[in-house]
Structure formats: structure tokens, C-alpha cells
Amino acid sequence: MQAIITKYIGPTDTKAARIKATCASGSKTVAWDHAWDTGANHRIAAVELATKLGLIGFGFGQLESGDLPNGTYAHVIVNGRDTPSATPRLDGANSAK
Questions:
Q1: What is the full DSSP assignment across the chain?
Q2: Beta bridge partners of 24
Q3: pLDDT, position 67
Q4: What is the pTM of this model?
């Protein structure tokens, strides 16, 4: 599992505002879309990075997101109900059925 961190990058004289999504396997920068709110822009960047790296799609879980106190957003891919977990549960029961 990898955590994806997204961070807002403000506009410069030559570039528009954007969001940079980063994880251990790489990064992707996505243009800010004024049609969406802040949380949606961060989520879009995370989804684009996860898609680029092949971390989401058929057979994978869903992306869950939240904001951190320092202004960045964190995103993780959690297993869905139909996706067996590779991580054993703490109570010793197997979560895959």
C-alpha cells in the first residue's frame, strides 16, 4: 500500500495553479480546475497519479482522502468489500472470504 500526498502549488508568472500528487513510486502534477472545490482538486490529482501507476482500477479498492493540519491532503487506497485484503486482521480472522 502507498499513501499519496497532494499539495497545492500556487500560480507563478509562467504557470497556473496546480496540485502535485506524490507517493513512493512517483509523482504527477495536475492543473487546478476552477470548476471543482479544493478537496475535489486534491482528489483528482491523487486519482490521476494512482491511475498512472496502475494502483486503482478493476479489482482494487477505493481511494479515501482527508486533509492534514499542514494544508496537504493524504489519500490511501483501501480494499473494497469484494477485494480480499493482503493484510491480516488484528483479531487473527482472515478478512478474505
A1: --EEEEEEE---SSS--EEEEEETTEEEEEE--TTS-HHHHHHHHHHHHHHHTT-SSTTS-EEEEEE-TTS-EEEEEE--TTS--SS--TTS--S--
A2: none
A3: 84
A4: 0.74
Using the structure block, give the residue that is written with the C-alpha cell 495536475. 30
Whether residue 87 is predicted with pLDDT greater than 90 in this model: the reply is no
| Non-local CB neighbours of 85 within 8 Å, separated by 6+ positions | 79, 95, 96
Q: What are the pLDDT digits (tens) for 23-67?
A: 999 999 999 999 999 999 999 999 899 888 887 766 666 788 888
CA distance 20 to 29: 4
**What is the distance between the terminal CA atoms of the chain, rounded to a whole angstrom?**
20
* Grid coordinates belonging to 57: 482500477
Cell of 30: 495536475
Closest to 2 measured CA to CA, from 52, 70, 58? 52
Nearest to 60 by CA among 1, 9, 16: 1
